[in-house]
Specification:
Elements: H1 15-27, H2 30-37, H3 41-55, E1 60-62, E2 67-69, H4 71-98, H5 109-119
Antiparallel strand pairs: 1-2
Helix pairs in contact: 1-2, 1-3, 1-4, 2-3
């Protein structure tokens, strides 16, 4: 799936595509990655195809019942497996430092209107 340099896109890669790539690379299985991400196997496959088009090379060798990383896929996995956890940790820290300013509560409408709301 090699593309010439003139056909490569220059926009940033979607974080969703990178998360799908990381899950497939970790499991070496589209179905398992899809289950983990609560997506269909077809949706994960489309994300990987889009990512490969964006990058300009195949990231996986597809076999009948398995996939394996290409050298480009292994190279991308090293970067993604280091970057995504760092991003997630940073977002978690930002959320914690901002503090919760809202509380979500689920209850019966009758309890909310007769007891809870009058006391708020």
């Amino acid at each position: 799936m090699q593309h010439s340099q003139t056909h490569l896109r220059t926009r940033p890669i979607s974080a969703g595509h990178l998360r799908a790539f990381e899950a497939v690379a970790r499991h070496l299985n589209f179905r398992a990655a899809a289950e983990e991400m609560a997506l269909t196997q077809s949706a994960v496959s489309r994300q990987i195809q889009s990512l490969e088009e964006e990058v300009g090379v195949s990231l996986f060798l597809r076999h009948t019942r398995a996939v394996e990383l290409t050298s480009a896929g292994a190279q991308l996995l090293m970067a993604v497996s280091q970057s995504l956890p760092r991003i997630d940790n940073t977002v978690r820290q930002i959320r914690q430092s901002a503090g919760r300013r809202a509380v979500a509560l689920t209850t019966f409408a009758s309890f909310a209107s007769m007891w809870l709301i009058p006391r708020l």
